[in-house]
């Protein structure tokens, strides 16, 4: 029987994908959210984590921004 | 590609697509409307119409390698052409009968004559020399109200415009009116886009109130058609007809407020065309290098070190600039600011796009920048690139709602679903080794139907 799963397909660059996998494994969002690792640039993830995920990604990217580090 | 295709249709035609079929058909019956629609179409679609009218069918030369589908799709979505089973042509389409008749009638008589408005000859004294200035003042008033909806600015726009802006969600709040993100995006558009957006929002409001807009559109088009090349704003006057109904008179009042027509006093019974009317006579797509937009006095100089100087005292301009610039000094007639990552990101976060910022800076470039850098390089390339990079770094991931199908019973089933999804254009991702298919959210229903149909057989 074919299995149907609703979710979100995420497209990104490989480096960023690795970051997401790390976030998934270390359960930084409270739980695992990656349903399936598709290929180098695609992931299939749960839909309900998206708001938290986006917020978290934003803050990680901010930490890595040289300008705000200098201040 | 989807973005490119969207850009192919101008605001007016997209709006036309949303109308009911019967309303479109009624427009086709009026020569002025058919002619105007033709004028707003992209060149390739015009070509198709001309061929269908004069040759009776579409017979593309075999040597030509043109993708007709896109243009045909546009025309059939407007109901100008429809599939014709009897045609033997490779592209079997026929043109709408009333559109064809109206178009032919219009080309034979010329755009001014079909407009049907009565012109009034004026003596030298009554000619309005300053309509251009007055028109831009009117338009500025509206934009200023939107940028800074203070009480003082509120008085300068009519209640209907205020209502229109709140209905279009450009402003929010009842007592304390504030501009919304959508409103800010509107401010960053080019004048032609703004004008059309305003008009279309007005029509949408009329439809929402249950009014029929065919006669309104007709009147608008008649007026716009008078704005031919070489018309002299303020020199020609047209009669305000007595038999226009209430709705039509209200639209005239709107147009007057927008500044596209000028009425000295309503009891004069005449109106003048203003230079702003030419904004409505063109589609926003064909105006990339338009002269009207360039002559508007830009005041912004951006240096390669991201410093920005604005030689203006207009609160409107400064309000717009401050959405994406960190303003540092403010003098009487000039202000200085910096384009920083923070300030641009702030704008991006509320939904303004990099392209909008860049095009705003270009359209408002100081004449001296235009003289040295031309229309493109008046904003330093490095700055434009950086603004785009700041936008891109926020887009590290692309998310799409989807359905994933796994654990197929057989290879046939897997390939069946995959090929079906591919044909329908709903396939997002598939992998033969993992036997996984991912389709768009909307596509799920269609795959379900495919399953139903295939189980029966």
Automatic annotation (TrEMBL), chain A:
Source species, domain of life: Eukaryota
Matches recorded under InterPro entries: TFB5-like_sf, TFIIH_TTDA/Tfb5
Listed SUPFAM superfamilies: TFB5-like
Locations listed in the record: Nucleus
Keywords associated with the record: DNA damage, DNA repair, Nucleus, Transcription, Transcription regulation
GO biological-process terms attached to the record: nucleotide-excision repair, preincision complex assembly; transcription initiation at RNA polymerase II promoter
Signal peptide, first to last residue: none
GO cellular-component term (any): transcription factor TFIIH core complex
Subunit structure: Component of the 7-subunit TFIIH core complex.
Biological role stated in the UniProt entry: In NER, TFIIH acts by opening DNA around the lesion to allow the excision of the damaged oligonucleotide and its replacement by a new DNA fragment. In transcription, TFIIH has an essential role in transcription initiation. When the pre-initiation complex (PIC) has been established, TFIIH is required for promoter opening and promoter escape.
Family to which the UniProt record says this protein belongs: Belongs to the TFB5 family.
Name of the protein in its database record: General transcription and DNA repair factor IIH subunit TFB5
Lineage of source species: Eukaryota, Metazoa, Ecdysozoa, Nematoda, Chromadorea
Automatic annotation (TrEMBL), chain B:
Key words of the record: DNA damage, DNA repair, Nucleus, Transcription, Transcription regulation
Family: Belongs to the TFB2 family.
GO BP annotation list: nucleotide-excision repair; transcription by RNA polymerase II
GO molecular-function terms, A-Z: ATPase activator activity; double-stranded DNA binding
Lineage per the UniProt record: Eukaryota, Metazoa, Ecdysozoa, Nematoda, Chromadorea
Function of the protein: Component of the general transcription and DNA repair factor IIH (TFIIH) core complex which is involved in general and transcription-coupled nucleotide excision repair (NER) of damaged DNA.
Subcellular location: Nucleus
Subunit structure, interactors included: Component of the 7-subunit TFIIH core complex composed of XPB/ERCC3, XPD/ERCC2, GTF2H1, GTF2H2, GTF2H3, GTF2H4 and GTF2H5, which is active in NER. The core complex associates with the 3-subunit CDK-activating kinase (CAK) module composed of CCNH/cyclin H, CDK7 and MNAT1 to form the 10-subunit holoenzyme (holo-TFIIH) active in transcription.
Domain of life per record: Eukaryota
Protein name listed in UniProt: General transcription factor IIH subunit 4
Domain Transcription factor Tfb2 C-terminal intervals: 385-452
GO cellular component terms, semicolon-separated: transcription factor TFIIH core complex; transcription factor TFIIH holo complex
Primary subcellular site in the record, as a coarse category: nucleus
């Amino acid at each position: 029987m074919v299995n149907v799963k609703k979710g979100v397909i995420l497209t990104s660059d490989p480096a960023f994908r690795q970051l997401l996998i790390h976030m998934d494994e270390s359960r930084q969002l409270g739980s695992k959210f990656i349903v399936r690792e598709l290929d180098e640039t695609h992931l299939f993830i749960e839909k309900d984590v998206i708001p938290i995920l986006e917020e978290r990604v934003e803050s990680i990217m901010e930490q890595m921004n040289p300008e705000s580090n200098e201040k | 590609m989807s973005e490119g295709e969207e850009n192919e249709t101008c605001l007016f035609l997209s709006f036309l697509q949303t109308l009911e079929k019967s309303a479109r058909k009624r427009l086709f019956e009026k020569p002025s409307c058919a002619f105007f629609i033709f004028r707003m179409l992209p060149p390739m679609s015009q070509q198709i119409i001309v061929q269908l009218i004069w040759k009776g069918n579409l017979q593309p030369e075999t040597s030509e390698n043109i993708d007709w589908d896109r243009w045909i799709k546009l025309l059939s979505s407007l109901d100008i052409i429809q599939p014709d089973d009897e045609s033997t042509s490779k592209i079997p389409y026929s043109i709408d009968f009333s559109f064809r008749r109206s178009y032919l009638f219009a080309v034979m008589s010329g755009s001014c004559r079909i407009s049907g408005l009565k012109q009034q000859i004026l003596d030298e004294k009554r000619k309005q020399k300053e309509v251009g200035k007055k028109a831009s003042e009117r338009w500025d008033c509206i934009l200023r109200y939107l940028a800074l909806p203070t009480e003082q600015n509120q008085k300068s726009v009519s209640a209907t415009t205020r209502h229109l802006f709140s209905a279009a969600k450009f402003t929010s709040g009842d007592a304390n009116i504030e501009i919304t993100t959508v409103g800010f995006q509107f401010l960053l558009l080019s004048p032609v886009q703004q004008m059309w957006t305003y008009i279309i929002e007005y029509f949408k409001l009329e439809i929402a109130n249950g009014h029929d807009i065919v006669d309104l559109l007709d009147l608008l088009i008649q007026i716009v058609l008078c704005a031919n090349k070489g018309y002299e704003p303020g020199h020609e006057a047209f009669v305000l007809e007595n038999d226009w109904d209430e709705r039509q008179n209200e639209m005239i009042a709107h147009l007057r407020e927008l500044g596209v027509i000028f009425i000295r006093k309503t009891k004069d019974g005449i109106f003048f065309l203003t230079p702003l009317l030419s904004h409505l006579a063109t589609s926003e797509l064909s105006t990339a290098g338009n002269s009207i937009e360039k002559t508007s006095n830009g005041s912004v100089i951006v240096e390669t070190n991201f410093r920005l100087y604005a030689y203006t005292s207009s609160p409107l301009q400064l309000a717009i600039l401050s959405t994406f610039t960190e303003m540092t000094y403010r003098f009487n007639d000039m202000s200085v600011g910096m384009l920083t990552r923070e300030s641009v990101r702030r704008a991006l976060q509320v939904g303004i796009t990099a392209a909008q910022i860049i095009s705003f800076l270009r359209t408002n470039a100081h004449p001296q920048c235009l003289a040295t850098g031309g229309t493109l390089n008046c904003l330093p390339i490095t700055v434009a690139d950086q603004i785009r990079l700041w936008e891109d770094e926020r887009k590290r991931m692309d998310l799409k709602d989807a359905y994933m199908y796994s654990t197929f019973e057989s290879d046939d089933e897997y390939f069946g679903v995959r090929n079906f999804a591919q044909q329908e254009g709903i396939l997002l991702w598939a992998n033969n080794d993992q036997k996984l298919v991912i389709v768009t959210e909307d596509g799920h229903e269609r795959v379900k139907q495919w399953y139903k149909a295939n189980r029966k057989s």
